[in-house]
Design a protein that fits this description.
The chain is α/β, with parallel strands linked by helices. Helix content is 50%, strand content 11%. It is globular, with a radius of gyration of 17 Å.
Length: 208
Amino acid sequence: MKKCVITIGRQCGSGGHTIGKTVAERLGIPFYDKKLVQIVAERSGLSAETVGWEGEYSSASSLFTSVSSRGYSAYNANQRGNMALPDQINAYQTELIKELAEKESCVIVGRCADYILQGREDCFHVFITGALPDRANRVIAEHGVAVDAARSHVKERDRKRSSYYRHITDQAWGMAANYDLCLNSSKLGIERCVELILASVDMGTDHV
């Protein structure tokens, strides 16, 4: 089977985790979301909670206490000690994501993986969006967020992801030009999103 790394960017509550996990299960390949966070935590000596938050949701104030990581220190392990915490975590995440892409077919959710792996011919980049009411309902049902706080929760998570992504990539989060496929889970449903990704990804026999 030809190697293919599928990255999943997603709005909060869009079902991106479920879609990515289902795609990985259908293809029989590893799935990295919380598992990636755990590996980074083990390598860095930080808690999984810290890696999970600072590696994707850091506030603008903490992000911009250091020079932007684009192009140099985020990818240089020897300079980690001079970075702000989010940039240190990004350095570990970048190393790991590149290692995984070299090693195996897999599905990776979030963590700027689409940017880190840009230009690789063996990668397929997806972004999942959805209507705000549907996304709010999903975080209520799946994560126990209070009904009256669900919409603000979703908006705040998206705002922080967008800020972090721009800091790391100098690009707009969710911009269609950065992805091979953009899907609206409210219009299509989770299962149809899975089917469209599977139909779009070339994992046939590698003749190279």
